[in-house]
């Protein structure tokens, strides 16, 4: 019997840690899993808890250069230094730990493609900044690109729809598949004018065979639910209709949430629910359910465990109680020495939007949506002609 959802996990996910004070705190994964366990999520027979298998060096080599892999191996042995200039410091055994994180996404692909599960969720994946020969933005190896290569090389998948809703542009995935029409890449993110990695502008549309298959939607500071959902619901079904994907990947970064300390967007948990529902529906409509969803960013330990739990519940078709269990709130208070643990999964105090900013952002969103739609129709028309 095929389970609806595979929850990919390994204790090493909690060891992917850059040290005290770093924004990426792997306790977010434990808190997310605890929240689900307290809701008896894993008691459902349609949900499988699947242990991630470390990826092989051969898997890494499908994307990364031998020199870069050796560089990371040596940093890992020393346990000091930096993957990039400052944001991604080395830590002891990071080579092996990162191979397990990457392996989680590879495991997700294999389990879905073997028909053991319909969808997979890997909270320990989504390292979209890593490039062929460099890391950065807390990303060492690019599990997303490695998973895509596996889909193409091992399973002969020819059309992969990749949606990235992390607040930061997915520059690594873009660069690796910039000339490849087998991957339709869509990234909604805070504009590179105000946020790392300072890329992902509208004109970055792909080259060669990949021209038109790379869509960037840079968003202004303060982008809110209504504007964001307008873009997603106007464009993603249209692109899926044109592209007819065989597999869908969602990088479900929770850092576009209004509580996130690293970005300046204003989404609430409701938007993440609607996106998860859309991706779930599209995966069944076009791919026989084949999709994987990855945790990616999310640096508010108040918001991220809640958002991820809402996302995975929609993938599994399970309703979670809105009220957060007292046991979880007690752990939160004890760990963070913070008496303001959230009471509910859904945000109970969403931000108020300034009327002038509302009008300005709404106008921008309408204009960029229309431009992207026109470009998709042009590509679709050309595609039809050459068929």
UniProtKB/TrEMBL annotation:
InterPro entries: AcuC (IPR003085), HDACs (IPR000286), His_deacetylse_dom (IPR023801), His_deacetylse_dom_sf (IPR037138), Ureohydrolase_dom_sf (IPR023696). Transmembrane segments: none annotated. One of its GO terms (molecular function) is histone deacetylase activity. Signal peptide: none annotated. CDD domains: HDAC_AcuC_like. Keywords: Acetoin catabolism. Pfam families: Hist_deacetyl. Residues 22-313 form the Histone deacetylase domain. One of its GO terms (biological process) is acetoin catabolic process. Pathway: Ketone degradation; acetoin degradation. This is Acetoin utilization protein AcuC. It comes from Odinarchaeota yellowstonii (strain LCB_4). The lineage of its organism: Archaea, Promethearchaeati, Candidatus Odinarchaeota, Candidatus Odinarchaeia, Candidatus Odinarchaeales.
């Amino acid at each position: 019997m095929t389970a609806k959802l595979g929850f990919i996990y390994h204790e090493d996910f909690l060891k992917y840690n850059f040290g005290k004070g770093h924004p990426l705190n792997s306790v977010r994964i434990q808190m997310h899993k605890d929240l689900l366990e307290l809701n008896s999520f894993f008691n459902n027979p349609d949900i499988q808890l699947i242990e991630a298998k470390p990826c092989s060096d051969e898997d890494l080599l499908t994307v990364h250069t031998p020199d870069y892999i050796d560089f990371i191996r040596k940093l890992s042995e020393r346990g000091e230094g930096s993957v990039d200039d400052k944001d991604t410091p080395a830590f002891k055994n990071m080579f092996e730990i990162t191979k397990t994180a990457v392996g989680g996404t590879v495991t997700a692909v294999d389990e879905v493609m073997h028909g053991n599960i319909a969808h997979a969720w890997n909270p320990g994946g989504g390292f979209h900044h890593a490039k062929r020969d460099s890391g950065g933005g807390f990303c060492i190896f690019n599990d997303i690109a490695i998973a895509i290569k596996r889909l193409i090389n091992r399973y002969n998948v020819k059309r992969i729809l990749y949606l990235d809703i992390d607040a930061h542009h997915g520059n690594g995935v873009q660069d690796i598949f910039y000339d490849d029409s087998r991957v339709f890449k869509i990234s909604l993110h805070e504009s590179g004018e105000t946020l790392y990695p300072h890329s992902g502008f509208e004109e970055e549309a792909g080259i060669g065979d990949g021209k038109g298959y790379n869509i960037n939607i840079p968003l202004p500071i303060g982008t809110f639910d209504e504007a964001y959902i307008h873009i997603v619901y106007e464009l993603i079904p249209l692109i899926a209709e044109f592209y007819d994907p065989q597999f869908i990947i969602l990088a479900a970064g929770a850092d576009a949430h209004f509580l996130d300390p690293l970005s300046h967007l204003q989404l609430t948990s409701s938007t993440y629910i609607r996106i998860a529902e859309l991706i779930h529906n599209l995966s069944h409509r076009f791919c026989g359910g084949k999709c994987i969803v990855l945790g990616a960013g999310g640096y508010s330990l108040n918001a991220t465990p809640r958002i991820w739990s809402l996302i995975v519940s929609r993938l599994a078709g399970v309703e979670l109680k809105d009220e957060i269990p007292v046991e979880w709130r007690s752990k939160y208070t004890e760990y963070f020495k913070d008496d303001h643990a959230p009471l509910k999964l859904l945000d109970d105090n969403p931000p108020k939007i300034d009327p002038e900013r509302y009008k300005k952002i709404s106008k921008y969103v309408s204009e960029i949506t229309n431009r992207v739609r026109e470009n998709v129709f042009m590509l679709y028309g050309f595609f039809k002609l050459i068929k």
